[in-house]
Amino acid sequence: EKLLTIKAKILRGHRAEHRTVGIDQGSALSPLTLNLVLHHALDLRIRDDAGHSFWTRYVDNLSFLCQSEREGLTLLQQVQSFLQPQGMNLKGTDGPPVDLRQWGKKAKIIGLAISWNKGKANYDLTPEAWNNLQAKLSDAHMSPNPHEMADMVISGWLGPCAPALEGQREEPAIHRVLKVASLAGYRELSPSQVKDHLQESLARWGAYKRRPQEFAREERTQDPEGAVTPFTTDRTGHLDMPEAGSSQASPAAIV
Q: Which of 218, 216, 225, 222 is nearest to 53 (CA)?
């Protein structure tokens, strides 16, 4: 009981006696506790009840690969029903499901714009992603060591960008990152610094795709009742997005 009391005090913060829901704004425990809540309230429910195998969640960013727009809308309603008992609601800022079979349609997921062309998934960086880089570099001026923080910002920003930069020439991407950094007041950053971060990101992405035991496989499997399942899942029930240029899935809508 003493341990539980300590945990409650840490979570509730300095005004614990006046709070019945939530934790302090900006608490370092916020992402962890949100992940715990959503894992039990949403992840496990989707896996066990909804029957949708291809989906991802990055903290509070959700995406689902569906066979049709109607299925996407139905899934949104189902997810909303899972969240409401927790006092949460879908933001709805991304609008209705995106039909990737329509020419020029793109689904935006955490800085990546995903499109489907000739049976292949294509990834691009959104304008918002570049704006986010500049905003974070500007905020780095508030750090005791701005240039060290700027280097960390660029490294962290390039981390999830590899799908959109894979197979492209490195120089244009490095030049654009340096240009954004220069506009934010960091003209001393060297191309070699950015190149190292970019190559590290691409290497991680390559290793990520080569782990067949933990992420989606392209092979088709069959369940005991004979129903064909086009994907296998990792140990958490999640599936990775298909790699750029693959014909792994035939998506109709991404929520």
A: 216
Q: What is the DSSP string of 87-130?
A: T-----TT-SPEETTSTT--EEETTEEEEEETTEEEEEE-HHHH
What interhelical angle do 146-158 and 191-209 show, nearest 10?
30
Q: Rounded distance, CA 40 to CA 49, Å? A: 13
Quote the DSSP letter at residue 22.
-
The better pLDDT of the pair 47, 243 is held by: 47
SS3 220: coil
**Are 224 and 68 contacting, i.e. CB atoms less than 8 angstroms apart?**
no
Residue 115: its H or E element: strand 112-117
Share of the chain above pLDDT 70, in %: 78
- Give me the pLDDT at residue 64, please: 86
Considering only CA atoms, give the Rg of the chain: 21
Distance in angstroms (rounded) separating the CA atoms of residues 197 and 113: 21
> pTM score > 0.70 for this model?
no
∠ CA 63-69-72, nearest 5°, is 40
